[in-house]
Amino acid sequence: SQTIHQWPATLVQPVGSPLSLECTVEGTSNPNLYWYRQAAGRGLQLLFYSVGIGQISSEVPQNLSASRPQDRQFILSSKKLLLSDSGFYLCAWTTGLNTEAFFGQGTRLTVV
Amino acid sequence: GIQVEQSPPDLILQEGANSTLRCNFSDSVNNLQWFHQNPWGQLINLFYIPSGTKQNGRLSATTVATERYSLLYISSSQTTDSGVYFCAVVMYGGATNKLIFGTGTLLAVQP
Predict the structure, then answer these.
(1) Would you call A57 an interface residue with chain B, using a CB distance cutoff of 8 Å?
(2) What whole-number distance in Å separates Cα of residue A110 and Cα of residue B19?
(3) Is the dihedral of CA A99, B73, A91, A66 positive or negative?
């Protein structure tokens, strides 16, 4: 069966420090991968999605970037964190068009 | 862009009560999902339902795509049902589908 892993679960980082969040999917190949952010406990916003290795689409301009170095690995990064980057980050995957999306357990990021 | 509105925004129930949560969307969509976000933040898949009705235990969902709404029914609520319920519409966005989330309904079930 397919599973999705995200780490770390929680992270406290100072302003101006770099960020790397990792998401991996097991049990499937060539998934579509997504990064979402949830602020203030409501409403998930799509940040990035990827349909293949090296293919990244950004939904909103921001201080973050994403990369997909391997088929089942999706990384969210920042060179210098801002206070406004705090939030709950969730990775998701689907197997293609019109298929159900599944989410990882999320990373709670606090920038101090 | 498409607007996804959920109602009510907050709901308090006594254990054992029934409830109906509503999701309205402003444009045609490919599909729709319902999620339950538990107190630890995890998103639990409830239903993947483009149209019609599905049931899973005490929960059921109905989507009327032509009228652009979906309903989630919770019967005989339990304290473990507490959390935020999201609907998310599935739209084709170029290379892939995208989930556009509603604002959620915060449900508190009291013993």
Answers:
(1) yes
(2) 35
(3) positive
Distance CA A67, CA A73 (A): 8
How far is it, in rounded angstroms, from Cα A66 to Cα A34?
10
For A85-99, what is each residue's pLDDT tens digit? 999 999 999 887 778
pLDDT single digits (tens) A51-107:
899 999 888 767 899 999 999 999 999 999 999 999 999 999 988 777 889 999 999
Q: Which of A36, A44, A51 sits opposite B95 (nearest CB)?
A: A51
Of the candidates B52, B90, B25, B27, the one whose C-alpha atom is nearest the C-alpha of residue A98 is: B90
pLDDT in tens, B27-78: 888 889 999 999 889 999 999 998 999 999 999 999 999 999 999 999 999 9
Identity of the residue in A42, A46, A55 whose CB atom sits nearest the CB atom of B99: A46
For residue B10, the chain A residues in CB contact (below 8 A) are none
A99 contacts chain B (CB < 8 A): yes
Q: Is A32 on the interface with B (CB under 8 A)?
A: yes
A and B: number of Cβ contacts within 8 A: 69
The pLDDT tens digits for B64-104 are 999 999 999 999 999 999 999 999 998 776 667 788 899 99
